[in-house]
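Sanity check

After download, print the first record. It should look like this:
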Amino acid sequence: MTDVTAVRVTAPGSPVATARLLAEAARAVDAPDLVLAVSRNGVRTVHTGGSAEPGPVPRELMAYELGSASKPYAGLLLARLVAQGRVRYEDRAADLLAPGFPVHPAVRRITLRHLLTHTSGLPGLPADFYPQAVPRWSTDPYGGYPADRVVRAFLRARPRHRPGTRWRYSNFAVSVLGHTLAAATGTPWEVLLHQQVLAPLGLAATRVRPGPEGTDAVGHRRDGTPVPALDTGGFTAAGAVRATPLDLLTFLEAHLDGPEPLDPTLNAALTDVCRPLLRRGLRHAHTHTLTWFHHPSPYGPVLFHAGATLGQQAFLGFRPDTGLAVAATATRRVHRADTFVATAYSLLTETP
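Expected structure tokens:
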């Protein structure tokens, strides 16, 4: 079942051509529910489809689990707190999280910037995470590992590399960042994110917990069976955000010279998170900002982040030079032959 909706068709361009492009791209993705949403200088085109029968709530108004695509929200939050002078990128996490607590010298050197940019030297997940997670890997691997365990694991960690010297993707590190900012501000992460990011940007359909019954998309395993809603346990900052595709476009449009924020610190933060910051990989070919992957394309640089949970996937990306934003969601667990991310990425990098 498929339908196409054009929203705010007021600017120059061809929404009909964009709708056809999205419909063609959707044929490459097999999922019970699929949303491909594009904004061109504020003109939105949304394609919804999938193998499942549509429910009473339109797919573009359902909240989808973002998984690791939650991290740009954490990055924007940190950047705004820095712009407000409440913390600094160079602040040492252990000093804010547990002042005076004895930690390994390498842990003592880990800054907020290191945690967000995956250069802290911490592993992807704490070592003691796996024994409790493996028995329920396909149903609830994170729920049994609460916030206090994440903090304790950080304080007793032994980083594998000196902070700031190597890039290694780490859900552990970004989760520690969340707990550190909560400690530094005396505000729970969920409240802090709402106050500093969600409310100012008008993201009323974005949250970090399941919403009212019937408003959240249901994830599926590869065989099509449903999976329970994700419980991120103590890893909230790294992967707990849920949002509708329309809210995702609003979030991306804010990075594309959208409506001027009321608070100049938010404008400064939006600029900061888009600035190229570090390079990694062979010949340092891969560029990153504070929170986005940063690649070249024929139409200028693209900034993006993908995420996956037990039964859902999400992709967020934008192209600053041309005002293009792409948000995509799907309700099937990622697998080796999956085409979802490649399809969404091609819309971002190959669309004129």
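If your output differs, re-run the checksum step. Summary of this record's structure: The longest strand covers residues 34-40.
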